[in-house]
UniProtKB/TrEMBL annotation:
Pfam families linked to this entry: ADH_N (PF08240), ADH_zinc_N (PF00107)
Native source species: Magnusiomyces paraingens
Alphabetically ordered keywords of this record: Metal-binding, Oxidoreductase, Zinc
Origin superkingdom: Eukaryota
Gene3D superfamilies to which the protein is assigned, alphabetical: Medium-chain alcohol dehydrogenases, catalytic domain (3.90.180.10), NAD(P)-binding Rossmann-like Domain (3.40.50.720)
Names of the cofactor(s): Zn(2+)
Similarity comment: Belongs to the zinc-containing alcohol dehydrogenase family.
Enoyl reductase (ER) domain: residues covered: 19-337
Alphabetical list of SMART domains matching this protein: PKS_ER (SM00829)
PROSITE patterns in the cross-refs: ADH_ZINC
InterPro entries on file: ADH-like_C, ADH-like_N, ADH_Zn_CS, ER, GroES-like_sf, NAD(P)-bd_dom_sf
GO cellular component, one term: cytoplasm
One Gene Ontology molecular-function label: zinc ion binding
UniProt-recorded name of the protein: Enoyl reductase (ER) domain-containing protein
Amino acid sequence: MSAQFTIPKTQTAWFYKPGSNALHKRTIPVPTPPPGSVLLRIDAAGVCHSDLHILHGGIPYNSEFIPGHEIAGTVVALGSSVDPNQFPVGSRYAVHSQNACGLCGLCRSGHDNICQAKTRLQIGLGHPGGYEEYTALPIRNLIRIPDNVPTEVAAVATDAVLTPYHALKKANINGSTRLLVLGLGGLGINAVQIAKAWGAHVTAMDPRAEACELALKSGADAALQKFPPRSLNFDVVADFAGVKSSFEMAQKHVRHLGTILTVGMGANITEYQNTKMSYKEMTTIGSLGGTTQDLAECLEMISKGVIKPQIEENKLNDVNDVLHRLDKGQATARLVLKASL
């Protein structure tokens, strides 16, 4: 028998308002799930630098919405046409935030992370996200959470694990790869763990001593706070900072015929050094998020203990303080918001 839940009529939600550098608290109705959707009680929502980019104007939006694209929770109600045997009330799911249509050519070919639907709004980036207590979501966005994976960890896995997993998978990281990971925030640290699980030799780089220490604890073979003058000639350089200086370092320290993975989006514009790109015949691969299949694989790796994301739980009502800490570089783990705290 499926679990039964008492669903309130209203809930607390935090809204982005264009031109404001803080989120705004409101009381709004709890939605009724339309056909093909479920009502998800949001048990955990991860906090990402993308939220800061929005607040700072780096990702422009002209209308209000509820941010938060790293979501995991419990199904508490079903819309019509949803099979209760496949999506039983009381079951836990992680949310694939790309909100893909499932119908375009890219979706049908397994690339639902870069869906082409013109009307699509990413969950938490235009479409209502995780900084609320309940949300209605199409079932195509849901990935079942393994029983032994905490909901809070599953929430951050939807980006902080999924994004590096997809990127490193595209670069065919394996036991013969010499990999440099640039930038050791939440994504970079998880990239270290993923690459080591696949047998790569991993060097991590970040100017912060504490980040380098964490990388070594996470399995990195070496950690650098600064580079020597000469090129270190890595097979693959994964840039998780995505700023001008990090991309310059990537081009310097990748070997001839090597590969640069551009993952971080710290700046809208970086610069190619055309002569160096041509001379080395290097390859640059862009990467965005990950697919629904990638997310299922990530959760399985976490379930097996291969990846152990570091998290810190906070109250949903403290979201602006948490964002401020993240902005000031004061987070030592992936920050998670919970309405239940």
